[in-house]
Amino acid sequence: xTKLGPNLKxxxxxxxRPRIREVLADLLGLPLTTRGNFDLFAISGGxxxxxxxDAPADALTPEEARKGAWIEFLVEDPDATVAALAARGxxxxxxxxxxxxxxxLPGGQVFRLAxx
Length: 116
What we know:
Number of helices: 3
Distance between the termini: 25 Å
Largest sheet: 4 strands, mixed
Structural class: alpha/beta
CATH superfamily: 2,3-Dihydroxybiphenyl 1,2-Dioxygenase, domain 1
Number of strands: 7
CATH class: Alpha Beta
């Protein structure tokens, strides 16, 4: 049987790096390791790797990224996490699934929060 692995790689324009770090490391508490233009955020026995590129053409536009695969983050208290994100200017966007809040990271990568 095939299973999903524990690692994910995303490419984003380097202008989004500080804000992505703020959301993933500071607000969601994912440990960060940096290797040159690559940020590795540890999560659940795996990682989310961000490759940052300087040329906008080398990354998806925010609109394109919203059409790609979405991430689900399991958090202890989704309401408190939504409030913390909102305090930093990141608000959920409407989606057909109203049982979870959905957000877009800088650069367009979408994630949702679920209790876990």
